[in-house]
Automatic annotation (TrEMBL):
Signal sequence range: 1-23
UniProt name for this protein: Aldose 1-epimerase
Reactions that this protein is recorded to catalyse: alpha-D-glucose = beta-D-glucose
Domain of life: Eukaryota
Keyword Transmembrane helix: no
Entry annotation: catalytic residues: H194, E327
Family label: Belongs to the aldose epimerase family.
UniProt keyword annotation of Chloroplast present: no
Gene: LOC123426898
Assigned keywords, A-Z: Carbohydrate metabolism, Isomerase, Signal
GO molecular function, one term: carbohydrate binding
Length: 361
């Protein structure tokens, strides 16, 4: 991609935030970052602090965009798959759309049967973020987005100031840093990046032959509404054992749901709040590989089970299993499971979620 193409698109649209005719209006655009060599770049948008694309070379030096997404802002506004979005205030599901915190019951927006998922119908992936800093030059270009989540938004308590920074921290490294500060009340916080990865290139077919390794020897089983039971059990001897590199589709026929694919949280080995290796993914055909590091206790593996006939970038049509998501996170529904690591952030505390995506070929 040329450097000219990486410049921010002039204001694409001014969207009104919720609040009627007097709502605040903010510009929405696309912004690019590129390494000095010019063979690794990303594009993001302040709609949902979303990762739009990542151009990565293969073993022959041929670049491909390895993230599913849309060419236009309208795709992200109307899309339902959270492609590349920053998801919150709480990613994943909260049982029965309710929780009790400090003796007070809170009810959330139901958008997954009786459950709440990904922060509600208008979570952080469906709002306009402010561009706080945008540095395109230097060895480690970056962009920082900011969003103020108000007390009661989607049912969650307290004001929350959230920052997300995308940075090319190495020649082929992408860092994502998420910080959130509770300013008035205690609140659950569990942010994630919802990129859909296909290392052969978006729209190139399924990822069932991608080799996946998860540094996770345990997982959190689910009930029939995809809510954790509260158990934490070993992956050994199950279809969830990816401790050694294994094709994603190797056990798909025995995954619950009649081959419906993976959508479950794994418990990352090692110290919970320390940066450590979470996963490795490799596409045997292109030679592209991705190594993920993070500081969160869990990682959700999702294999695009519900993607079907989705019109994406460059005229591509995305189908089931056309990508995989590796969403580092706190355990799902942690707010209703005191036996899980806490996801509560209290006033003055800072939530920190760091990710590092290291690409190679």
């Amino acid at each position: 991609m040329s450097r000219a193409a990486l410049l921010p698109v002039a204001v694409l649209l001014c969207l009104a935030l919720a609040g009627g005719a007097n709502a605040e209006r903010k510009p929405v655009g696309f912004y690019g970052l590129e390494n000095k060599k010019g063979d690794f770049s990303i594009k993001v948008t302040n709609w949902g602090a979303t990762l739009v694309s990542a151009l990565v070379p293969d073993c022959q030096g041929n670049s491909a965009d390895v993230i599913l997404g849309y060419d236009t802002l309208a795709g992200y506004v109307n899309g339902t798959g959270s492609f590349g979005a920053t998801v919150g205030r709480v990613v994943n599901r909260i049982a029965k759309s309710r929780f009790v915190l400090d003796g007070k019951a809170y009810r959330l927006f139901r958008n997954d049967g009786n459950n709440s998922i990904h922060g509600g119908h208008r979570g952080f992936g469906k709002v306009i973020w402010t561009v706080k800093e945008y540095v395109r030059d230097g060895d480690t270009p970056y962009i920082t987005f900011f969003y103020h989540s108000f007390d009661g938004e989607q049912g969650f308590p307290g004001d929350l100031d959230v920052y997300v920074t995308y940075q090319l921290s190495g020649p082929y490294d992408l860092s994502i840093r998420m910080n959130a500060t509770a300013t008035s009340k205690a609140t659950p916080v569990n942010l994630a990046n919802h990129a859909y990865w296909n290392l052969a290139g978006h729209g190139s077919g399924d990822v069932l032959e991608h080799e996946l390794q998860l540094l996770a020897s345990r997982y959190t089983p689910l009930d029939d509404t995809k809510i954790p039971t509260g158990q934490v059990v070993p992956v050994a001897g199950t279809m969830y054992d990816f401790r050694t590199p294994t094709p994603v589709g190797a056990h798909m026929d025995i995954v619950p749901g009649g081959g419906g694919g993976y959508d479950i949280n794994f418990v990352v080995d090692g110290q919970q709040d320390a940066m450590r290796k979470v996963a490795c993914v490799r596409d045997p055909e292109s030679g592209r590989a991705l190594e993920l590091w993070a500081n969160q206790p869990g990682v959700q593996l999702y294999t695009s089970n519900w993607v079907s006939n989705e019109k994406g970038k460059a005229g591509k049509v995305y189908e089931q299993y056309g990508a995989l998501c590796l969403e580092t996170q706190a355990y799902p529904d942690a707010v209703n499971h005191p036996e899980f690591p806490s996801s509560i952030v209290r006033p003055g505390q800072v939530y920190k979620h760091n990710m590092l995506f290291k690409f190679s070929n």
